[in-house]
Amino acid sequence: MTRRRVGDVVLDVGGAVARALIDRPAAKNALSPAVLEGLDAAVDAATDAGCAVLVISGAGGTLSAGADLPHLETLIGDEAGVTGYIASIGAVLDRIEDAPFVSVAVVGEYALAGGCEILLACDLAVVAEEARIGDRHLEYGLLPGAGGSVRLPRALPAAQARRLLFTGEMIDGVTAARWGLVSHAVPAAELDGAVEALVARLARHSGEVLARMKRMYRDCAALPAPQALAAERAALVEHLMTSPAAAEGLAAFRAGRKPDFSTVHSPLPGGAMTRTDEGRRAVSGRWFEELEVGTVVQHVTRRTVTETDNVLFTTMTMNPAPLHLDADYAAGTEFGRPLVNSMFTLALVVGLSVSELTLGTIVAQLGLTDVAFPAPVFPGDTIRVETEVVEARASRSRADAGIVVFEHRAHNQRDELVCRARRTGLMHRRPIDSMGTQS
Q1: CATH number for position 213
Q2: Is 276 inside a domain boundary?
Q3: pLDDT digit string (tens) for 216-250?
Q4: How, if at all, do strands 303-304 and 382-394 pair?
């Protein structure tokens, strides 16, 4: 077990488990920039170490009381500063939600506002029965900005989500468990033991298979039932064909013994950022050999486009088009409101594909062609992306690489196709190890 402090978070990493303790008890573990730095480092540390579990807790029992309001107050009047601070909270929570390990939130006393948003971003939550959980933003005249108004309605029935958001009420751990907001509620005296029992159960599984299971859950939850069932079957076939952990599990069953995943070196699925090459480069993309024509990837991460995204991107790229920037002008167009800059949409579509296709495995992007925007994107739309490999051939000039053409297809929350584009990439072949075999 190695321990270090990053910002206001104490990190412990050892074996299959990483732990992040937010250590600002005097400030109820409010989300200062130093806390966000530490949580970001915790995701990196757990990923780099190939951990199966990351436990997130707060010193003194409070996970977090939310945003650092004194810090936020100093930023009022500075739109860029406010935007950057709020975006940094959301970005860290998005990383926790999308990470290849299982994240466990622990609450002994309070998880309020941003603390509740941390809990919502985690996969599981263990809380004391006496703990108090709530959105609470309205109590200080504020609004959620790190997923509260998005994840709460997805985690709870509509009436219960509205109750927490509109009243600012706190509920106890027993109620949170009954509603399905948390996975475990236990007496305060049993909290530590319950956390350790859960962690031990999670850690006995293959980290690779946990990552695949989490990815399957996220993929299938975002699809209509027929597509989800097809995606589940396809994921299982891929897993059986590629996972040494699956082979070990089947062999153990045949032999009547318990599987031992600790000795299994498992190649991780695309999107699980726990592989590294010899240069310690983060690798979650797919090697050229893994990109067969016809391969379709449903990307896990989705993104809701905001008005700030549109304004910042448009102004940073020196685009004066009033259709993007002038709400009064846009109200008089056939769309009735500002359109999101299509160049932002294209960049977002490519970006959403990177972690599961090209992160650490691409040499260079060679071109973009056949770009089309069949339907407009508006602020508030949520974009999901699928990618199909449409061409793949060995490079004529580089023996260690191949050329792949990806077709990216993006849909909004109404399943309307909003962007289609083909991207050509020069992709690394799988590295050769010292024995002359591909690792």
Answers
A1: 1.10.12.10
A2: no
A3: 888 788 788 888 888 888 888 878 877 888 888 88
A4: antiparallel
Helix (H, G, I), strand (E, B) or coil at 148: helix
Q: Are 133 and 112 in contact (CB under 8 A)?
A: yes
| CA–CA distance, 373 with 384 (Å, rounded to integer) | 14
Distance CA 268, CA 259 (A): 18
From CA 142, how far away is CA 66, in angstroms rounded? 11
Structural contact between residues 143 and 168, judged by C-beta atoms closer than 8 angstroms: no
What tokens does 48 get? 């780099």
CATH code of the domain in which 90 resides: 3.90.226.10
* Rounded Cα–Cα distance for residues 198 and 215 (Å): 20
| Low-confidence residues of the chain: pLDDT under 50 | 266-281, 433-437, 439
Token pair 């010193």: residue: 59
Strand partners, 21: 10, 57
Predicted TM-score of the model (pTM): 0.62
Record the tokens describing residue 347, joined without a space.
């960049």
Assigned token pair, 220? 């299938």
The domain that contains 373 carries what CATH number?
3.10.129.10
Which residue range(s) make up the domain with 262?
207-269
Regarding whether 68 and 109 lie in a shared domain, the answer is: yes
Domain boundary residue among 269, 298, 321? 269
| H helices present in 260-394, as ranges | 307-316, 322-325, 327-331, 342-357
How buried is residue 189: exposed, middle or buried, by Cβ count under 10 Å (0-12/13-18/19+)?
Answer: exposed
Rounded distance between C-alpha atoms, residue 173 and residue 256, angstroms: 40
Closest CA to 411 of 256, 251, 303: 303
